From TrEMBL, chains A, B:
Mg(2+) binds at D219, D243, D247. Substrate binds at R96, R106, R134, D219. It is found in: Cytoplasm. This is 3-isopropylmalate dehydrogenase. It comes from Jeotgalibacillus soli.
Amino acid sequence: MEKTIAVLPGDGIGKEVTESALKVLQAIGRRYNHRYHVNTGLIGGDAIDQKGHPLPQDTIDLCENSDAILLGAVGGLKWDQNPSHLRPEKGLLAIRKHFDLFANLRPVKAIPGIISASPLKEDVVKSVDMMIVRELTGGLYFGEPKRKTDNGAVDTLVYSREEIERIVEKAFELARLRRGKVTSVDKANVLESSKLWREVVEQKKLKYPDVELDHLLVDAAAMKLITNPSMFDVVVTENLFGDILSDEASVITGSLGMLPSASIRADGFGLYEPVHGSAPDIAGKGLANPAAAILSVAMMLKYSFGMETEASSIEEAVFSVYEDGYCTSDMKQDGYRVLSTSEFTEKVIEELERE
Amino acid sequence: MEKTIAVLPGDGIGKEVTESALKVLQAIGRRYNHRYHVNTGLIGGDAIDQKGHPLPQDTIDLCENSDAILLGAVGGLKWDQNPSHLRPEKGLLAIRKHFDLFANLRPVKAIPGIISASPLKEDVVKSVDMMIVRELTGGLYFGEPKRKTDNGAVDTLVYSREEIERIVEKAFELARLRRGKVTSVDKANVLESSKLWREVVEQKKLKYPDVELDHLLVDAAAMKLITNPSMFDVVVTENLFGDILSDEASVITGSLGMLPSASIRADGFGLYEPVHGSAPDIAGKGLANPAAAILSVAMMLKYSFGMETEASSIEEAVFSVYEDGYCTSDMKQDGYRVLSTSEFTEKVIEELERE
Ligand SMILES: CC(C)[C@H](C(=O)O)[C@@H](O)C(=O)O
Ligand SMILES: CC(C)[C@H](C(=O)O)[C@@H](O)C(=O)O
């Protein structure tokens, strides 16, 4: 197959980790006989500096002409005092909205060996394997009115029934491919939008009699993620709850540096990026963990290109490197050898070529 | 001194734990020569059953004529399918709003011995000592428009500058009495209300040059509560973020069953209640942990009545009972003897009388 990928390295370690991810992608191309064309564009702080906009029109055009997007990370101290339309994360919000990337998928899985890096007890996290499905283009992020005066401010949490339906269906579909359980998170005891959310979930459930469903209030969910994280299979929730809970979930297994994410559209087009940020403090030093970006490529192959085997190859290669006792500086553990970004990447490629 | 207290036991274990708390209150009265008058009223499910309203007018009158309110817990499966105006938690929301109880204070502190019940590693939680200050009468909970149709729903996150100012001041004042640090949590990279929030916090900071301040985005805060909870002293945030983060924080030290809370008004009038819920599954069995309700009484003495010594006596008594190796069934640990609700209460009173 032939695919064109828009690569937006962004800021900080975004550059190094996408470079690693692309090396792995090309290794997959060689091994499975695919051609991946790569076009690089600007986003975030870099785009502000060079083009005066966090998501320049050139970048949008580049993405329009691609089959998927790979993103590094955006942001950095340098732009933190900018007016809000000139902030790096505006690029991220704008690209999600422009391409209607409504479904944000965030897998969190305990990796044997690595879980000793977790702040939680091994027993609590050892069988964690969940997928958080966050609605990404609605709710408080985009609702109008949204304004501030000297004396007050307002944001609006608005959802249409269709917006809820499509993300909830996505969650049920994903659950069928996993352990068959959906936990829907809302605040139905307070919010009208959550009441509608719960209603839609109940109604969609009728189409999925084989999937188990439960509802959890967002405050209870924030507790259960800590006290009993292995109870979750697929978690589905609205945009802001998803922002909070997926970040909370990302630290429980001690493997933040290796968590990928996908933000996809109804037709399978998607944007793939590591969960971690741009980490300007370690940028350019060869210290960054490329695993999250590499695993984001695996998600791209699986969710946008239907290349399941290729995706599994990458995942297995990454996990093998850990099993062989290698890690990067963010996951230092007893008995592990710490590798640089490029050394780690080479090990992954070696594994891929050996498989 | 003479004080009148409105006691609203509510549902489930609310009844047993307020009974315990009142016994301790009377012991304090004997010891320090105060007279505490107690008037009992209905709230929540019980009030719905007996009066057809989760917060009957009688109860409001009773509270109006009191110096403070002690609440047990509300809710239970029995009322879960009720229409929303006949749900127990509506009583809680209504009483907060009616009495303008804008400042919700939730201390979370690691208790030596007890932290082995934590899902987190001892090292991570052993020096946790924070106070979450949650705005309680604004934001998405009460903003208009707030409505649902078949095709969509809307909630409104609205804050006036004054609403933000008073809670932020409260946080700075509390920090002065503690370790002198405030962490303000918002989502200023996305929400207009958070931009105003941050602006107000910065401006108030000028009045408190002695207090250290930092800002954290809500998603980052959800992570830090797990990876580095001891970095927090006073955490201040808006209503819904506070709901989520305070519940998250409540499980990190393994001592949910002993966490109290205060919801106070500008003049010091307040409502005091355990953080835990009504736990209908264990109600009436003598299994409930009364510590949270007892420590809520301590907060009442401190924050509403200015009885600092009396409050400390209660806290010390409760902690001594744990130190002596007793606990309730929710905190079972190696080497601890499990007591019933009333046995635990008796131990606390014995300690109080011995001090
Ligand atoms: C940078 C920010 C706007 C963004 C969000 O809140 O969605 C980020 O936290 C994320 O989760 O991707
Ligand atoms: C019962 C519910 C409405 C309430 C809230 O969301 O405020 C509860 O979760 C709390 O934190 O006191």
